[in-house]
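Project channel, design review

CF: Before we commit to the Candidatus Electrothrix communis constructs, I'd like one complete example in the thread so the newer folks can see what an input/output pair looks like. Taking histidine kinase.
RD: sounds good, go ahead.
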Amino acid sequence: CNQGSQSLVGYEQDEVAGQPLHAFLTEEICTAWVQQLVADEQAEPLQNQETSLQNAYDEKIPVLASASPIRDEAGEVHGAVFVLRDLRERKKLEEQVYRSKRMESIGLMAGGVAHDLNNILSGIIGYPELLLKTLPENSNLREPLEAILESGQRAAMVVADLLTVARGVAIAKEVRHLNLLVKEYLNSPEHKKLNTLYPEISFEHRLEAMRTGIFCSPIHIKKCLMNLITNASEAVVGNGVISITTHNTQVDEVKALEYEIAEGEYIVLSVEDTGSGIPEKDLQHIFEPFYTKKSMGRSGTGLGLTVVWNTVQDHESKIFVTSGEKGTCFQIYFPVSKEKVVMTEESSEQEKIAERSGTILIVDDEPQLRDIAARMLKSIGYTVDSVCSGELAIKYILDKPVDLIVIDMQMEPGMNGHDTYIEISKISPGQKAVIVSGFSDSADVKAALKLGANGFIKKPYSLDQLGRAVKEALCS
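CF: and here is what came back for histidine kinase:
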């Protein structure tokens, strides 16, 4: 038993000497090998047999085993030499490849259905919202319309989560204060809903004062936080506490090796609960798509922690999970950015819905989507017209210039949104435009924004989202 074997089995050499082989390997394997190697005088070496080894810490370690008989000068077998290769790292890499391929499959599925689903959901979300805007508060239709709207929004979240898992986070990142993003989430309708659903849970937060920020997609950081807090809420039975904290930390060379991250300064976001904890056998699977022990109806899409994992990876960050009988703690290490922090302020509700003026052309191949967008923009004061193709949009602009175009990126048949925007920019240099797509990270969206488009809005959108995007584009 050499030094490598001692390290693998966890015993000293004198503890291993004289022990039967089946003390470490399965008895079935040992019996078969001994019979083949020792009993059979013509036995050949056994090469690369996968099995598992039981070490001193009662761990099962995957190993690749080879064995050769030891013969004397007469050719008689007196024993065998066993070579065991630790497969843990290889198995870890194989698991990563498997997960990557699984994510790729989900990506293909999501990409294939997201465009059509987002178009369908635009009607399910858009029309109820428009009707609710016109109905009196005491109308009997308000409750069913609100239910339809909420169902549509939940379905849109499923599609958005699939796309985040498949394609990564949004195209736009900026340097933001993590504390402000946490506060924005804690003041959001989503968190207020959690407070209502779980009145027995106390939500506490301790945010360490800090001047530095992180380079991030704000919407995905808040979604990540929401998913962690939602997950924690569902783990707490009865009275409990969920703590949200932030702090600065410095990762030195020793910690960098231990944590498998780069040295440097980090901002750590922690979400800790006093729930029942996560069983050890489940810990390694919790970030896998649809791996949940909870009811789908209660837990949402089954992608909550997968979205967290992908968001963390896309931000070149690291997530750690510790869990026991007294609860679970998730910690995310975000690298500190030395760039200047972008300061933003949430628009007031009055500013969001304030009426505006200007001429807008909607360009979309879907009649329903043209109708929804036109109705929404007309309801807040804009003069709106619409066309069903890129070719007709070019003819329209040649004859009648507009203040802004709202253009869908995916149109069939004929010119797509990107090519249409290029041609319109030649006719009307500096033409203001808002790009619409179900995919926030598509090459066409990136290219159109690089060419000078003034904004992007993801389908399905609300009146508030469309109104703000148009207002910001016109004011830019």
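RD: helpful, thanks. DSSP finds 18 helices and 15 strands in the chain.
CF: The two ends are 73 Å apart (CA to CA).
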